Amino acid sequence: MGITKKVTVLAVGLGLVTLSACGSSGGDDASGGGDRTVTLVSHNSWAVSKDVVAAFEKQSGYKLKVLEDGDAGQAVNKAILTKDNPQGDVLFGVDNTLLSRALDNGLFQPYEAKGSDRVLDAYRVDQDKHRVTPVDTGDVCVNYDKAWFAEHDLTPPKTLDDLVEPAYKDLLVVENAATSSPGLGFLLGTAAEYGDEGWPDYWKKLKANGVKVVDGWEQAYNEEFSGSAGGKEAKADRPLVVSYASSPPAEVVYADPKPKTAPTGVAEGTCFRQVEYAGLLSNARNPEGGKALLDFLVGKQFQEDMPLNMFVYPVLEGAEVPEEFTEFGPQAEDPETMDPAKIAENRDQWVKSWTSLVLK
Is residue 76 a contact partner of residue 274, using CB atoms and an 8 Å limit? Predict the structure, then answer.
């Protein structure tokens, strides 16, 4: 997501690009800078309802500006490079696969968001310093095109092991683990499943079985995957893609007319759980505005607005999840997970090894 949803997840389907929302303005902010605009830097799957933005602006007195900066991996890398003179005040979309990179580079300053005590314990990290605030969660999973598999009288894969079987040769498209958050999540899922020594052999088998690698989620899902609305328009020919468990409900919500069931499914034995965070950038020009925004991101109004906008799950205890999620995109019952310390210790070397193994 985002999870990713990313995750979220379907920015193209939502038709949203850089957002500069209208709202109340005027007056001096608490930092004394006289700027009543707070700027959020995000990956390109940020999406929120207009009335929710308006509520934030009315409550806080700040106008919200959003700058989208590519995939989550690209957004985090750029934020690190510009940390002395950041583009904004808050960065949203750094997930558990990239968190240590952001923290080790001093990207965030401490702030404990109001209401963060209601975030479910499973998603809390960095509790001694409060440099990041959990915002959403989602599962990176292989999605499949139901119609394609029915037409070819082939059972869709269910597990990672299935994907290397000859029956699924030349069917899977994945994202680059070096540049894409879901791509990295999928790599970490294979490392969690097969261990430090076993995952390279697994990827050798995937490569031999014709896996296709593209730069990011948007290209993989909307241009290469035959099961998505965008993929159908692009005449895509890959019926398997690394995406999210919440992608099938998005295909239902944005279809016209809406189908009775999702045209895509999820191979639940391939899922890796992501959690996305937001943090107050270390050299934010408007830190007080940034704090107000972080408070809002963990509030019930924003948390319940997220699922049908960014197609991720809320992290706030008691936040309601829409029916479309429970019916078409339930969270995986037993996803792969990995301790953040293990990710921090191995991520860069794993990505380097993966690049050498798969791309060369």
Answer: no
